[in-house]
Amino acid sequence: MEATALESDSGNTNMAVIRVASPSSVMMNSSGVSSVSSQLSSSDCCTSGGSGGGGGGSGVGSGCVGGGGSGNGHPFAENWCFTQVKVIKFSYMWTINNFSFCREEMGEVLKSSTFSAGSNDRLKWCLRINPKGLDEESKDYLSLYLLLVHCYKNEVRAKFKFSILNAKREETKAMESQRAYRFVQGKDWGFKKFIRRDFLLDEMNGLLPDDKLTIFCEVSVVSDTVNVTGQSAVSQFNVPDCRLADDLCELLDSQRFSDFCLLVHGQEFRVHKAILAARSAVFAAMFEHEMEERKLNRVVITDVDAEVMANMLRYIYTGQAPPNLESIADDLLAAADKYALERLKVMCEQALCAGLTVENACDTLILADLHSADQLKQQAILYINTNAAEVIESTGWNTLVNKYPQLLAEAFKALATQQTLPLLMMMGPCRKRSKQT
Length: 437
Prior knowledge:
This protein is an alpha+beta fold. The chain has 3 domains: 22-66 and 76-228, Apoptosis, Tumor Necrosis Factor Receptor Associated Protein 2, Chain A (Sandwich), CATH 2.60.210.10; 242-355, Potassium Channel Kv1.1, Chain A, CATH 3.30.710; 360-420, Serine Threonine Protein Phosphatase 5, Tetratricopeptide repeat, CATH 1.25.40. The protein contains 13 helices and 19 strands. The chain has helices spanning 197-201, 244-254, 273-279, 281-288, 292-296, 306-318, 325-338, 342-354, 361-370, 374-386, 388-391, 395-403, 405-427; strands at 3-7, 13-17, 24-28, 34-38, 55-66, 69-71, 74-76, 79-96, 110-111, 124-130, 141-150, 156-165, 171-176, 181-183, 188-196, 213-231, 260-264, 267-271, 298-301. Strands 5, 8, 12, 13, 14 and 16 form a 6-stranded antiparallel sheet that branches. It has a 4-stranded antiparallel sheet with strand order 9-10-11-15. Strand 6 and strand 7 form a beta hairpin. Helix 2 runs antiparallel to helix 6 (306-318). Residues 89-219 form the MATH domain. Pfam families: BACK_BPM_SPOP, BTB, MATH_2. It is found in: Nucleus. Residues 258-325 form the BTB domain. This is Protein roadkill.
C-alpha cells in the first residue's frame, strides 16, 4: 500500500505515504473512524467491545535542550528539559468454558467482567467478543475488542495486545495495536477478524484445551506527562555503568584468589569464603565454627546437582536468576532453601507457579510444603481447586492422597472457604432478632 487516507474524529482527511512490509490491518472504532496499522495477519480490526486487569508502570522520557556548545566532541547545553511520559501497564486473562457451545448469532456478544490496573485505579475496562463475528464480512471469524467502561477523564490513550493461550499456556495468535489509540467512556478498539472460527475450533491446533478459550490481554495506558527542567553544571562527568555483577561473575569464573572448594559429584567449584558468607547465613555458620570443612577449606556436597550448584553460585555472586530457571526451578528451590537464599527461593517459586499444569500441580504443592515456600503453596492449592476435575485424574493426585493427607486436608479447607464466602455474600448481612416482650 503506497498512499492511505487517515480520517480523524472530526472527519478531516489527511494523506500519508505508508509502506507496509507485512499485511496491513484496518483498526476502526464503532463510529467508523479508521487508520492503517501493520499487523501479524491480514485480519480487519474494528471496535465494539472489551476486558483486562492487574498492574505495573513504566515511563518513556524525551529530552529537550537549549543554548550551549560542546566539549570533547559531545553536545552540551546550559539549559535542559526532560519530559517523562508515565505509562501504566497491566494484563488480564479471560477464560470461557465450553466455548464450542456458544450459541450467539452474528453480531451478538460475550463480555468479561470489568477490570483495572489496580484497586485504586478509576479506569474500568472489559473485554468483549463476537463469537460469530461482528457483521456479514466477519461471520467466519471471532471478533475481539477492548472497551473502556468507565472513565473519569475526557479521554485516555492506550495500546493493547491480544493473544490466545494454548494447552501449554503459551501465547499464540497474538495481535496488537501499533500505536496508542484514543479511548473515551463507552468506546472500544479491537480486531473484527481476530481469528478464523474453523482454525480456532480445530482440535489439532490446541487452542481450546478442554473446550476452554483463554484470552490474554495486555494494556498500556498513558497516565500523564511531567516536565523536569534545569541548568547544567559547567563541567560534565560521564559516570560509567556499574559492573559489580559482571566483575564478581568474572571472579567466580577465573577462580582468582579463591580460598575454598565445593566438591559436588566429582566437580570442583573454587569459591571465595567472604562472598559466600556475606550472601548466605548457612555458609557463614560453616566458616565461623570449628568444623572440619573450615580446617580443610573444602566441603563435599552430595544432595545438590552440579548444574544446580553452578547456577546457585552464579546467583550468589551476581544476584541474577539463571537464564534456564524454568527447567531447574524445582531443584534450585531446594538448594536455595538449604542455603537460606530467600530471594532466589522466591524467584524459583515464581517460575514454578508460572509453569503449573494439571500434571504437576500436586507435585509442586508437595515441593512447596517441603521447603516452606508459602507463596507457591497457596498458588498450587488455588490451581488444584480451580482445576479439580482434571487434577484428580493425575498421577500426582494419588501421591498426595496416599502420602500427604495433611496437604489434601489443606486443599479441601481452602476449597470450602472459596465456596462459602460467595454464598455468605449472596445471603447478605445477618439480621438481629428482636427481643420478645
